[in-house]
Amino acid sequence: MKFNSMIPELTVSNINQTKDFYVNKLGFTLEYEREEDNFVFLSYHNTQFMFEQIHQSGWNTSELEYPFGRGINFSISAPNVYDLYQNVQDCNIKPYRTLQEAIYKCDNEDILEVQFLIQDPDGYLLRFTN
After folding, report:
1. How far apart are CA 119 and CA 70, in angstroms?
2. At CA 15, angle to CA 12 and CA 16, rounded to 5?
3. Over pLDDT 90: what percentage of the chain?
4. pTM of the predicted model, to two decimals?
């Protein structure tokens, strides 16, 4: 397996709930896990994440309160954002922002993105784009 240069590692309250959400509802792939450490490594196309359940010797700089990850969102490219959005609706996941088109200026060029945002079980904000 090739590891990305940057891989976010997110602290979660319940590793099994996180694994179910990302794998069974969003279609992430379980690359490997260390059950004894309550740790999973997941991928979604070219995106990689590590998740670890809260524990006393973790790398937490402060008390974790819901929603986790305040002030950050993870932009994830989806091969078919429309199909993924339909799947999210079918799984009764409430969108943080519904499916919409947005135009972003990049080096004097307008880039059209189709996007939606959801929160995972711990409140991490995920933005899926085309």
Report:
1. 11
2. 145
3. 88
4. 0.93
